[in-house]
Amino acid sequence: MYPARPDEPDYALLNDPDSKSHNRYGLPIDKAAEGDSLHGQSLNINGDGGVGANPNRYKQHGFYFNADNCIACHACEAACSEKNDNPAHIAFRSVGFVEGGTYPAYQRLNISMACNHCDNPVCLKGCPTRAYTKFAEYGAVLQDPDICFGCGYCTWVCPYNAPQLDPVKGQVSKCNMCVDRLEVGLKPACVSACLGKALDFGVVENIPERRHQAKTEIPGFPRTDITHPNIRFQQTRTTQREMVRVDSTAVKYHREDNQGSFRPVVDAKHGFDREWNLGRLLGSHENAHIIFTLAVQAVMGAFALLVLGRLAGVSPVASFHGTPAYLPLLLLMLAMMGLGLFKLNMHLGKPHRFYRGFYNLRLSPVSREIAGVSAFFAGLAGYSLFALFDGVFAVTMQSLFTLLALLGTGIGGYYMYRLYRIPARPFWDHWHTGAAFVGTALSLGALLLAMTALAYDELTSDLGSVLAWSVASGLALEGLGLLAHARDVSGQESEGAASFYEQSTSYGKSYWLRNGLLLAAWVLAIALALAGAANPWAFMLLALVALTSSVIGRALFYVLVIPTTMPGAFFWKNRGFVEHAREVGLADMPQLGVAYERHHRFNLAELFETLRSTSLQEKVAQLKCIISG
């Protein structure tokens, strides 16, 4: 454990003689009752089997931040990073600020924030590898980077930007509440280092000495209803009515005079000119998710049309099973599934640990999505295999694999949608996400069938009409979802409205191009469905327009989302500066706290170069370097 010095100053010592029984959310502060089997267990910190003597060891602890005293000296950041041996681009605690007014009535409010060790830790529920645990000891939410495989989903669901995804190591780590210091009666390192006594720590709801407020919110702090964070604030100075962020996020905070609280609203800091930004749009970090979702949804849609259409007695679809295009379609679907899963797996920080994605089926929508999609892939593979054979046994096995694939479609498709319903990302947290996913399955799935049939000259007018109606239905569903989404999100008092503002300005031309292509594809699909014709050029044009619309739309979906994170500074924790630093090479200067995403370097070129090595030792060593990133 942490070696406490005999001359530790009083301000570094834990001191909570009394505590309340419940917090303001009605939850008990005691995390383990007397006589509970958890009492007396060691946290095994660094292999030490000792048990701390803190009388409040099993009570929920939390941070206390006095915004009136913070001078943004960043001593808390430095102490935290030094204790945890963090590189320059990772900070478990960071200091940002909001500002308001103009000279001479300018105001600045600093905010120092780390993990809030919440009562409802959504990071724990979302993590597919079960890398998170909420301990009865101090109520600490601890994360094990060695278990993490670097999907980053916890960084999506956390409203406070507490989990940090290291782009170099490809794993997440976060504040551990300095439990090793707590075990020997010391406050966390950041608290002990604070120069202005702005930070304090103790049993939650206890107000430190010479403090008189215990607020749950201050300007710039995200909503608390998602996780019930264990942090309390004091902020007595009257602020300006509007406090703005100085980072690139188009959000500011407006004070409600009747309540005294602040709500996030749009800050039109980027102007109102429409731009393309195609390079940034299509060069997104989330391209793997774009390929995965579009490929999987298209294949699931094609399979559902192929199987359910036959079961429903839709004769053009049933007849397709006996054509020369049938088996090539199944092979193409398998190839698309393989590509999507490969791209998603290689997007992980630790691709070789992919199997850990099944660890948290009880809680994580990511684990359930992985299980569902895997079941669909297995069912599709079995279905395709037994399609090569005749006989009762082959038909029976194909039926069983059909059921497995349909089950996988239902589970995988549903949780593919549910994992994006994230309260901390309001732009995604809307039913249009599900409409877009189902619409894509209907439209791209039908077009996949049509293009395969067309390649083998099997696209009849009847089949073309059925598939065109499917395409039109999918596009209509997606379009209705987009209209509802635009109406609802643009009027929100949240980061979702800021995302809509960015969509209409920074990506405005790309946004309207997608909308125009979507409408054009729908009109063309309706025309083909009504005409009952199988014009190959018209179907190829429809496929091109619909696919382009889908790619741009899915790219917008990922690049526009603005999470409910803490405000940054001009350079530190500013997404705009991070992108700029990587583009122009400033990220080569480690003191700027920006790093390139080096864990994605695993590629075929490096693999072939490795295999050309002259010695076995060199091959093994280089392969280890490539895999570890």
Notes on the protein architecture:
With 629 residues, this protein is α+β, with helices and mostly antiparallel strands. The protein folds into two domains: 263 residues, Alpha-Beta Plaits, CATH 3.30.70; 210 residues, no CATH class. Helices cover 44% and strands 9% of the residues. The protein contains 19 helices and twelve strands. The protein has a five-stranded antiparallel beta sheet with strand order 3-2-10-11-12. Strands 8-1-9 form a three-stranded mixed beta sheet. Strand 4 and strand 5 form a beta hairpin. Helix 12 runs antiparallel to helix 16. The longest helix has 30 residues.
**What's the N-to-C terminus distance?**
31 Å
The CATH architecture of the largest domain would be: 2-Layer Sandwich
The biggest beta sheet, please? 5 strands, antiparallel
Number of strands: 12
Total domain modules: 2
Computed CA radius of gyration, to the nearest angstrom? 28 Å
Average predicted confidence as pLDDT = 91
Helix fraction bin: 40-55%
Secondary structure tally, helices: 19
Catalogue the unreliable spans.
600-611
Categorize the overall geometry: globular
Query: What share of residues are in beta strands?
Result: 5-15%
